[in-house]
Amino acid sequence: MNARLNFFTSPTAGKALKYFMSAGKTLKDSPLPAATQELVALRVSQINGCALCIDMHTKEAAAAGETPVRLHLVAAWREATVFTEAERAALRLAEEGTRIADAAGGVDDEVWAHAAKHYDEEQLTALVVLVSFMNMANRLNIINQQPGGDYEPGQFH
Predict the structure, then answer these.
(1) What is this structure's pTM?
(2) Which of the listed residues 5, 14, 26, 118 has the most CB atoms within 10 Å of its CB?
(3) pLDDT tens digit string along 69-113?
(4) Of all residues in the chain, what percent carry a pLDDT higher than 70?
């Protein structure tokens, strides 16, 4: 399977993705815990069916010390006992923020309030931007039919 476009050779994509990658670096350096960032990125990518991002965030999380059990259970986090209450709040917010069309109202106040109990304003800001960022990354890769499976940890950082 080959991608439809080569974003690395396109002058337009190169200019746009320079800023996109810079935004990703800013998020990585944010006060939102790194483990939470990877779990949220993975869950958003699972919902959207983005093979490249699932591959990337599974491998990045594992390289950072995340356990296989937690990575395997992200898709079923509601029934899993391995996530903290803060991580569960972030995953729920990520799901509602990703399924905007399905939820018909976006992130409801109860979900927001639960997340706000666990994260300060700067962390919540990073979480919201991360969910939006991942949805954009997923859409770029899905439209382009970007294959997953060959990602190496650190490849894009």
Answers:
(1) 0.94
(2) 118
(3) 999 999 999 999 999 999 999 999 999 999 998 866 789 999 999
(4) 98
Rounded distance, CA 26 to CA 151, Å?
Answer: 21
Amino acid, single-letter form, for residue 29: D
CA angle 59, 84, 69 (to 5 degrees): 40
Q: Which of 136, 95, 99 is CA-nearest to residue 114?
A: 95
Per-residue DSSP letter, 151: -
Distance between CA atoms of residues 84 and 79, nearest Å: 12
Helices (H), the chain: 11-28, 34-48, 51-63, 68-73, 85-98, 100-103, 109-118, 121-143
**Which residues have a Cβ under 8 Å from the Cβ of 1 and sit 6 or more positions away?**
145, 147
| Encoded tokens for 85 | 């209450």
Distance CA 41, CA 115 (A): 16
What is the distance between the alpha carbons of residues 105 and 78, in angstroms, rounded to a whole number? 21
Place of tokens 């029934």: 79
Contact 3, 144 (CB under 8 A): yes
